[in-house]
Write a structure and sequence with these properties.
The complex is a heterodimer of chains A (about 450) and B (about 180). Chain A has about 450 residues and is α/β, with parallel strands linked by helices. Helix content of chain A is about 60%, strand content about 5%. Chain A is globular. Chain B is elongated. The relative contact order of chain B is 0.11. Chain B has two domains: about 110 residues, RNA polymerase sigma factor, region 2, helix turn helix motif (Rna Polymerase Sigma Factor, Chain: A, Orthogonal Bundle), CATH 1.10.1740.10; about 70 residues, Winged helix-like DNA-binding domain superfamily/Winged helix DNA-binding domain (Arc Repressor Mutant, subunit A), CATH 1.10.10.10. The chains are: A alpha/beta (about 450), B mainly alpha (about 180).
């Protein structure tokens, strides 16, 4: 992804600068940036304010000393947890010179460790030595490097380091996405933003992509055996979007740790989701007592609310540029497709030559079959010629209706940013959901039908 | 210790204190070990605010923080037997307070469950930083306070909590995100 965010230092960098924890090179870089960035200056003063307030000493409650002496007077002798003797090891509390020495020594150790790791990499992986440095120069490659390193157990710590760098960058990107989403300006914010896409829609697409990457990192950390960090990353991703597969993974993790209450909260989200509800009985059975009774009912009700909120947060409201599409079907016949169907409808733009689109085709076929069984029209639109389309559909055994759009007129009418692109329309033919994740469609159609039912009442 | 400097200005003095108020920490510790209450009271006057603040920030509740404050000072004469006078006493008693608070937190958590993902909207109106920190979910608040208030490294936090460095860094990040959003 090419995001317009890399020019601001990440929040972690700003925090380190604000609290005097940045090393000299970072400090200089941030200082240079601050000269021309009001937003980051504000972040820094905010961090300092918050930390100063948190460190402010509070007066103990009146009479506490009397109560302590009274307890001692009664012969009470408390047992306290053991704390090791000696001073704190925090760099912040060391005198300045000591801190510089520690930092210098740390940097040396770090450099040698790095060199050693690079040597290991060279012989073990035959990766070009430039690869890890690539991650430093451009945070966007950090995840690439991490995913590559994750295959080699000996590089576990280096992998975690790159993952952290990328998680850090992802958080900054998410913050920026939130800002874009809440701004009302109509300026384009990046090459992926479609011409008719609003800032909020673009931000939604960004969040989706970033949330997905966090999920992948969580799964990688899990594979590395860092369960605590994996859980944290996954629940960080929890806030970003609704993904029943992710909730299931988190639930399984909690269950494996014996925390049935937390597992129940995660599984409740899997159960209320129409795409995964078939797992309800087996999941409930594994939860035991936590999967029944009023507490479980309350979890389900809350999960339904959260799901609804997530689904509608991703909603848009705009009309396609054309009310009907002129297309050719896979047998080469000219067809006119009305977009106002009186019921929700899915228009899917796909291409087998786009890897992202290709990998979703099987899922697309399942979703289409389910929607058609529910009376929801589905049309798939492809840039390929009818003859090649027919051949491909037959070879794969796909049954959903597919149309050819070689001139890309339909794609232009929907302002598709690429493949795949899914548009869920309401009964009046307006676009209510636009994204590139087939997994969301069933929920969105269900939400539209629920809304139509509510409006009919 | 900066905490000591600030505490001396606190105007809660008992008449007994006058005799021991000029003693340094080492003399006081020796006195506390041998038993007289005025030495404990002086130690309390010097360090109670730091202990109470650490507990309050970690637990997010004044009531629970006073319990920890009491436990620390009720237990301190006996715990001092284990104090080896390496490093500052102020730092030592703060670490005792941190551990006592974490124990209190574990007791509290076993009573009511709080999932990690419970972090949601903290409050409708923008709260003070202290309130925003108190409103964080326990796992995030603990890491935030240990790192930003008590100055522990991520490695130390990981060891204290039986967790990992990466988890600690992530929690700090998420905590900051929530705190900044709500302040």
């Amino acid at each position: 992804m090419n995001l317009p965010l890399s020019r601001h230092p990440s929040f972690s960098r700003l925090r380190a600068f604000a609290l005097g924890e940045a090393n000299e090179a970072q400090r200089r870089r941030v200082a240079r940036h601050l000269e021309r960035c009001v937003r980051c200056r504000e972040t820094i003063s905010r961090v300092r304010e918050i930390v100063a307030a948190a460190r402010e000493l509070e007066t103990p409650p009146a009479g506490a000393l009397e109560r302590i002496l009274e307890r001692r007077g009664r012969g009470e002798r408390g047992v306290l947890p053991v704390a090791p003797a000696g001073g704190t090891t925090s760099v912040r509390r060391l005198p300045r010179i000591a801190a510089i020495l520690v930092l210098g020594a740390g940097a040396l150790v770090y450099t040698f460790a790095r060199t050693g790791e690079l040597e290991a990499l060279r012989s073990e992986l035959r990766v070009t030595p430039a690869a890890p440095r690539l991650g430093e120069a451009d945070p966007r490659s950090a995840s690439m490097v991490a995913n590559m390193l994750a295959n080699f157990p000996a590089q576990r710590s280096l992998t975690a380091e790159y993952l952290r760098a990328d998680i850090d960058w992802l958080s900054a990107a998410l913050e920026r996405a939130e800002e874009i989403g809440s701004s009302n300006d109509d300026q384009p914010h990046g090459p992926e933003r479609g011409l008719t896409q609003t800032a909020a829609e673009y931000a939604g697409t960004l969040r989706l992509a970033l949330g997905w990457r966090l999920t992948v990192h969580g799964t990688t950390l899990l594979a590395l055996g860092d369960t605590a960090a994996a859980l944290d990353t996954l629940s960080f991703a929890f806030d970003i979007g609704w993904d029943p597969q992710r909730f299931r993974t988190i639930g399984e993790l909690y269950l494996a740790r014996g925390d049935t209450a937390a597992a129940a909260a995660a599984f409740a989200r899997v159960v209320v989701d129409p795409t995964t509800s078939e797992a309800a009985d087996s999941l409930r059975a594994r939860l035991g007592a936590a999967g029944a009774g009023p507490a479980w009912k309350a979890l389900l009700a809350e999960a339904r609310l959260v799901m609804k909120e997530h689904v509608w947060n991703g909603a848009v409201d705009r009309a396609p540029l054309l009310p009907r599409l002129r297309l050719e079907d896979a047998d080469g016949r000219a067809r006119v497709v009305e977009l106002r169907q009186g019921t929700p409808m899915l228009v899917a733009f796909r291409s087998r030559y786009c890897p992202g689109s290709f990998t979703q085709l099987d899922e697309m076929a399942r979703v289409a079959a389910r929607l058609e069984a529910e009376g929801v029209p589905v049309i798939a639109v492809s840039p390929e010629e009818p003859a090649t389309l027919r051949e491909f559909m037959d070879a794969k055994g796909y049954r959903f209706p597919v149309f050819s759009d070689p001139q890309r007129d339909a794609a232009a009418a929907f302002d598709t940013p690429g493949f795949p692109a899914y548009f869920v329309l309401d009964g009046t033919g307006r676009i209510r959901f636009a994204h590139n994740d087939i997994g969301r469609v069933i929920r969105e159609v269900a939400a539209l039908r629920e809304q139509a039912r509510e409006q009919a009442l | 210790m900066e905490a000591d400097a600030r505490m001396r200005e606190t105007p809660t003095q008992t008449p007994e204190r006058a005799t021991v108020r000029d003693a340094d920490d080492a003399t006081l510790i020796a006195a506390v070990r041998s038993g007289p209450t005025q030495a404990l009271a002086e130690l309390y006057a010097r360090h109670a605010a730091a202990v109470f603040t650490a507990a309050l920030r970690l637990l997010g509740s004044r009531e629970d923080a006073e319990d920890v404050l009491q436990d620390v000072f009720v237990g301190s004469p006996d715990a001092l037997a284990r104090y080896e006078e390496r490093g500052a006493f102020g730092a030592w008693i703060r670490r005792v307070a941190v551990r006592a608070s974490l124990m209190a937190l574990r007791r509290r958590r076993s009573k009511r469950h709080e999932p990690l993902a419970a972090a949601g909207d903290i409050a409708a109106s923008p709260p003070e930083p202290e309130r925003a920190i108190a409103a964080l979910p326990d796992p995030l608040r603990v890491v935030f306070v240990l790192r930003e208030v008590e100055g522990y490294s991520h490695a130390e936090i990981a060891e204290l909590l039986g967790s990992t460095r990466t988890a600690s860094e992530l929690r700090l990040h998420r905590a900051w995100k929530l705190v900044r959003r709500s302040v």
